[in-house]
Amino acid sequence: MAKIINQPLNILIMKHIFKKQILGIFILFIGTSVWSQSEIEIKNKISDFMTYMPIENASIYVKNTTIGTISNTDGKFVLIVPKKYINDTLVISSIGYKSVKTVVGEFDNNIEVFLDEDVASLDEVILVANPRPTTGNDIVKRAIEELEENMPNEPYLQKGFVRHKERNNKQYKWLIESAITLYDSSYASGAEDNLKINVDEVRKSYDLRDVDSIFAYYSYLKYNTKNFNIKSKNILRDTIKTSSLIKAIKWNDERINGLENLFKGRINLVRNANQNQALLGSKILDKHQFTLDTVLVDDGRKLYKIKISEGKDYVGLNTKGIYNEGYHAQGWMYIYWDNYAFKKIEYELVAASEAQKRRSKSLFNSKINHKLIITFMEYNDKMYPNYIYYETPKLVKIGDRSSDKKTDEKTLISEKEEQYYYTIQEILFTEIIEDPEIISQSLQKDWSDDIFSSRPYNKQFWKNYNVLLESEEEDKLIQDLTKRATLFKQ
What we know:
Shape: globular
Largest sheet: 10 strands, antiparallel
Radius of gyration: 27 Å
Number of strands: 17
Distance between the termini: 73 Å
Helix content: 25-40%
């Protein structure tokens, strides 16, 4: 003690300042650590309790918010949750299973999640249901009647993540991941003039399609050149300018896989059910028949599971410049028992007319031309799109398919595999905005739904943005595409 008392005053002051600096650095370190953890990363795998098989498209979300994601084909997911929701409830649910609920901050990333089956009694529901509709056709018709009540009736914005990928049977040819904003004025208004999409940021963009997209160029010339009479087999890649080919590819992209077509066209079944000639419009039972299969449970609520089958008339999409007619529909609908709201639709269009069967077999070697999965989430007593999966084949090579052409079976299979792409668009919506002032300000900006244009990568934007988790197979294919794209640029 005597030693400290006898030290000069300036040394004591310097020691005091040094201690304060150390304390300040420590507090800064703690503050930085807390700031860096302002979001919580929740990740895991979801499996069936009895079979141990992964559960795809299970919903993972924070209750009473729009923060959520879905599991991939491996049953895995990643969800970024702002720390302010640490004491809120995390819900993990899937149709036909009992939900798992826990506090966000107590979720254990190291323990795999298993879900138990949960099925209601069909007989019990039908007995209680009287005088409610009891047939599949009547339940679906009632659900369509209730759309005006169940769908949003005020303008809103939705933030979402898009993954667009194209591949043949061998490898990925193209991948782009974007953040989008969707504006919709309400269900009652027509989508054509009252729905807009903007591409906000791009996360990934690898494109190798110009190697074999000859059909896009051929189609572009055919529909944009007067007196066009060139045969497709006479068009060679070496004779086409790259700039012309890119222009043709973009034109083909927009007419087949543009976001505007997906949201404003007939394939957006529920949102556009009030349009003229809608697939779920007034003549729905001419083109479809519906059969009540069973009753399932989703997060404690009963759901009708309804089978979709063909009607007496063909289904068509009325796509400009493409023969997208002559289909029959098949799939499933999941409709809430209590309010008749659509929860999920799995919808496929299968070649049915003789003309469409010949076209599909010749071009794609498959009768299924369109596959749609769409799920909805409930927010403030209204149903909003939550996840969209849309798959369709896109022709990229025509080649010589004449009957007198002599080709061995191995070569024929190889040519068929590279003749078209599987094109898939997945959209996960992560936020709903209903504030009129924010909506109004957003609409003052320029909007563009072009997901095909390259943009600079914004690392800060994507740092804590919820995206769809790739499956293990997808991750390997994407890594391969990345390497090939780098070599192609060189």
